[in-house]
Amino acid sequence: MQEKKKLLMLGASSFQIPCIKYAKSEGYHVITCDYCPDNPGHKYSDEYHNVSTTDLQLVLKLARKLEIDGILAYASDPAAPTAAFVAEKMGLPGNPYKSVKTLSEKDLYRSFLRLNKFNTPWYGGFNTLKDFSSSSSQFTYPVIVKPVDSSGSKGISAVNDFWEMDKAITHATQFSRSNRFIVEEFIEKKYPQLDGDIFVHNGKIIAYYLGDQRNDVAINPFVPSSINYPSLLPDFIHDKIKSELQRAIDLLKIKFGGFNIEVIVDEKDEIYLIEIGARNGGNCIPDIIKCASNVDMIKMSVDASMEVEPKILNRKNIEKFYTSYVIHSNKDGKFKSVKLDDSISQYVLDIRLMVKEGGDVYKFNGSNCTVGVGLLEFPNLNVRNKMMDKIEELIAVELE
C-alpha cells in the first residue's frame, strides 16, 4: 500500500478547519502544529505537534523529521514566513522566503513599495516613542499607528497629535512579536476600503475577488466587520488594482498561492496597496468567494502546496449579493447565543461560531475578538443594503 503524502498545516484555528478537512478528503496525511493544543482544528488532523508556527528552526526540524511533502500557512499571517522558509530549505513548493518576510512586516513592505515607486503613505518604522520623537516633525496629523508584524487589524490606533502617541505605541507593541511599530499618514478614502483574496499560479493572477469592506465605526473603525461581493467600485479601478498587484508579484518573484489584499483608493483615484498578505484571508473570505463565484481557493491552496495544478472549475459570474459578516459584540461578557431575527434568516447560508457557550467574549477591537462569521446571500442590492444597515441587531450576540 502506497504511503500517504504528508501536508504540514501551520495552525488549526476555526478558520483553518475547512482547509484541513479538504486536505484530508484528498487522502493526504495532515499534520497540524502550533502552541495551542486546544485549537479546534487539531481534532480533524491525523497528528498534532506542539511547536510554535513562528519558530522557523523548530518547524524546519519537525518538517525534516516527519519528511513532509508540502507545507501550508492557510489564513495565518504570522505563519506565512515560516512556511516559505521551510519550503525553501526543503525544496518544497513555496514562495521566496525573503519576499514573504517583506510582505509580512509592514515597515519592510512599505520600503518595498517606496523603492519600486508604488503609491504609499508617508511612513516610518520605530522601536520606541523616543525613536519616533526624533522624526515626528516629518509627519502631518492625523496618523495611524500599527504593529509591524500583527494581523487581523489588532493594535491599530488613529492619533491626532503627538501627546496621544505614547498610548497608541503601547497598544501597538502589545500585539507585535518584535515590539516594533509603524506610523503612517492618514489617507482620505474616496470609496470603501477593498478587501479580499487573489490566487496566483505560475506567477500570474488567475483569480481576483476583492469586495467592499464595511466597519462597525461605533466600536472600531479599523476592524472589518463585513466584506460585500461583488464590489460596487467601477471596473477601471479594479483594472488599476490588478495591474499594480501583478507588478508587485513580478517584482517579488511570487510563484503561487492565495493572497489576502487590502486596498485604499484616494480622492484622485490613486491606488494604495495597503496590505498583500502572503496567505488566504480569514473571516471565511475564501468560503464566501466560493459561494459567490464557485472558485474554490481552499482547494487551490492545498493542491498547489502539494504540487497539483490548481485548476478553476465551473467559474461563474457573481449574480447575487454576498456578504461575509463578522459576528461581534460591543462589550465584554460571557457568550450565551447568537440570535437571528426572522427577517434575516432566509438570507443566511451558514453561521460559524468561534466561541462556545459560556466562553469569553470581548469588545470588537480586532479579529481576535470575533464571535463567529455569517455567510449571507441576498437577491438584490436593495435587500442587502436594508439588512446590512442594521445587521448588528439582526444577528445579535447575546451575553449571559
Biggest sheet overview: 8 strands, antiparallel
Average pLDDT works out at 95
Count of runs of 4 or more consecutive helical residues:
13
Helical coverage, percent range = 25-40%
- Radius of gyration based on Cα positions: 21 Å
Quaternary structure annotation: single chain
- Structural class comes to alpha+beta
Q: Could you walk me through the main structural features you see in this protein, from its secondary elements to its overall organization?
A:
With 400 residues, the chain is α+β, with helices and mostly antiparallel strands. It folds into three domains: 87 residues, Rossmann fold (3-Layer(aba) Sandwich); 64 residues, 2-Layer Sandwich (Dna Ligase, domain 1), CATH 3.30.1490; 206 residues, ATP-grasp fold, B domain (D-amino Acid Aminotransferase, Chain A, domain 1), CATH 3.30.470. Helix content is 29%, strand content 28%. The chain is built from 13 helices and 19 strands. The strands form four sheets. Strands 13-12-9-10-11-14-18-16 form an eight-stranded antiparallel β-sheet, sandwiched between helices. It has a four-stranded parallel β-sheet with strand order 3-2-1-4, sandwiched between helices. The longest helix is centred in the middle third of the chain and has 18 residues. It is globular and about 65 Å long. The mean pLDDT is 95.
SSE blueprint and pairings:
Blueprint lengths: L5 E5 L6 H9 L3 E6 L12 E4 L5 H11 L3 E3 L7 H11 L6 H8 L1 H10 L7 E4 L2 H5 L9 E5 L9 E3 L5 H9 L7 E5 L8 E8 L2 E12 L8 E6 L5 H18 L4 E9 L5 E7 L7 H9 L3 H9 L15 E7 L5 E8 L1 H4 L2 E6 L6 E2 L10 E7 L2 H8 L2 H4 E5 L1
Parallel strand pairs: 1-2, 1-4, 2-3
Antiparallel strand pairs: 5-8, 6-7, 6-8, 9-10, 9-12, 10-11, 11-14, 12-13, 14-18, 15-17, 15-19, 16-18
Helix pairs in contact: 1-10, 2-3, 3-4, 4-5
